[in-house]
Design goal:
The chain is α+β, with helices and mostly antiparallel strands. Helices cover 34% and strands 19% of the residues. It has 5 helices and 10 strands; from the N terminus they run H-H-H-H-E-E-E-E-E-E-E-E-E-E-H. Strands 3-2-1-5-8 form a 5-stranded mixed β-sheet. Helix 3 runs antiparallel to helix 4. The longest helix has 32 residues. The C terminus is likely disordered.
């Protein structure tokens, strides 16, 4: 009884200290310092809180296990260290079936648990909207991005990031105004179709806590609902050639009216319609016809 009472009294200050520490955490700290979280603001998308929850829970569990393992190692080193006057080797233990079962079963349970929660969240994030409010096609190319606003019959061609040659510019600076920019209306269900014109690319907006690869002649889908207005940096996350580091873009989450104004401005510039596959660099894919036989001189 005394032992249980001591544990109870010890648990109270520990729990109080933990609650005090957590209460003083910022949103960034509570979400594992992941991008996209600002104090007093909504998450960037409908999926970011779920991804952050999986991340924080995972590393918290692993940190606890790590502390336990480190503690056991230190305890073993201290308790079973060689004392003064001791000689020879300590008693060797070859087998301990309970311990071997324990350190086999526990990691297996952890792996299965992490897999189950990851598969559950991934299935929900990957679930396509049955009736999206907008469909947008994002096309990766060496080394820029084209955006087809499918639902609004408009498009935005992009070029790769251009170096800023201004004398006062920082080394490696780029011209921000020329970076391709994807506009998304806030609080709308958006389906993004991802494909490539040449090699494998990857569509990554760090603040969305999600990225997806883009393959030639294949369409991948990303379903997302932006929930906070703002400008978010994006980049290619798959090494795709010499200027991979300059394959940048921005995502602007704006009000519905601002989105409509942007579509109208694209059409006013002549960007009405859709960019087709005629600009794709690959012409020898299945279904495009066999290459012509070369003529050899005799």
């Amino acid at each position: 009884m005394r032992h249980n009472r001591r544990l109870r009294w010890a648990a109270i200050p520990i729990a109080a200290t933990l609650a005090f520490v957590l209460a003083g955490c910022t949103q960034a700290q509570l979400h594992g310092f992941l991008p996209g979280f600002v104090e007093g603001e909504k998450p960037v998308t409908s999926n970011t809180s779920m991804v952050a929850g999986l991340w924080v829970t995972s590393w918290t569990v692993l940190l606890i296990i790590g502390c336990l393992v480190w503690g056991l190692i230190i305890w073993t080193v201290v308790v079973y260290r060689r004392r003064k006057g001791q000689t020879g080797l300590p008693v060797q233990l070859r087998y301990n079936m309970p311990i071997e079962i324990f350190y086999t079963v526990v990691p297996l349970i952890l792996i299965l648990g992490f897999f189950a929660f990851t598969a559950r969240d991934q299935a929900q994030i990957e679930q396509r909207y049955k009736h999206p409010d907008l469909t947008i096609e994002v096309i990766g190319k060496q080394w820029a991005w084209d955006f087809n606003y499918v639902s609004d019959n408009a498009y935005s061609p992009g070029i790769q990031a251009q170096p800023n040659d201004h004398p006062n510019a920082q080394p490696g600076a780029i011209v921000e105004s020329e970076i391709p920019t994807l506009y998304l209306p806030v609080d709308k269900k958006i389906e993004i179709e991802l494909t490539s014109r040449d090699v494998i690319h990857s569509f990554w907006v760090p603040a969305f806590l999600y990225k997806k690869d883009m393959f030639p002649a294949k369409i991948n889908y990303m379903s997302v609902t932006p929930t906070r207005e703002g400008t978010y940096a994006g980049k290619c996350a798959e090494l795709c050639g010499e200027y991979h580091s300059q394959m940048l873009f921005n995502v602007k989450v704006v009000s519905e009216q601002e989105y409509k104004d942007h579509i109208a401005s694209l059409k006013a510039q002549g960007y009405e319609g859709q960019l087709s596959t005629n600009y794709d660099r690959n012409t020898n894919l299945p279904g495009t016809g066999a290459p012509e036989e070369s003529t050899k001189s005799k």
